[in-house]
Amino acid sequence: MNGVTISFIVAGSFLILVGVVLLIIKIQPSDSLFQGPGRIMVSGPVGLVVIVIGVVCLGLSVASSRVNNNNSNPNNTTSPTPTPATTHRMSATLTSPSDDTSVSRSQGFTASGTEAFLGSDTIWILDYNGGYTADQPAAIAGGRWSAVDQPLGYSSNHLPYKLTMVAVFANRACAKVLTRLSNSPNDYTARLPAGCTPFGQVIVNVTRP
User: 174 Cβ partners below 8 Å, 6+ apart?
Assistant: First the structure.
């Protein structure tokens, strides 16, 4: 609300109050004449004319306020609320095997679970024992993934023993490193390569050859 609008409101309110007072005390020595906007002529008792002038001032205050609002918002158009883009986050679960499953060192086991929205990422399984041994990427079809982990550990490991398998999301950089490791005689790495994100693990009991 600018200064002009406030002035019109103050003046209009004051004139209406004065006009009402004049009408109450009946100070009407003669009819008065007022020419309003658009050459509108108003005549009558002094109090009535003063009230009309006050009403005109209030009307001008409303008009001034609207003009001011339009000037401060030159692009005063209603824009539709944008609909947020639907985003999907990749997800996966490791559902099999369960912890403490008894497995064979030579036969190993098949790890499996569900997947969604992987995009260009893949799923890999790795054995963990203070570091990571790259096994293989998972086969993915129909919202499920699976990968065979075998053999488990080394022939020098004394039965029975526990083995931890970790399932990870692998972006292209991570998958490139894991592929190189899995195809080399030394498939062990002390730390998870950049771009690999674990999403599940299982600890099995290797109880037989």
Answer: 124, 168, 193, 194, 195, 196
Q: What stretch(es) of the chain map to CATH 2.60.40.10?
A: 91-208
In this prediction the pTM is 0.59
Q: In sequence order, what DSSP letters do the residues of 3-66 get, joined into one string?
A: HHHHHHHHHHHHHHHHHHHHHHTT--SS-EEEEEGGGEEEEE-HHHHHHHHHHHHHHHHHHHHH
Residue the block writes with tokens 């609002």: 69
Burial of 191 (0-12, 13-18, 19+ CB in 10 A): exposed
* Domain 91-208 of CATH type 2.60.40.10: yes
Token reading at 163: 């083995």
127-140 pLDDT, tens per residue? 999 999 999 999 99
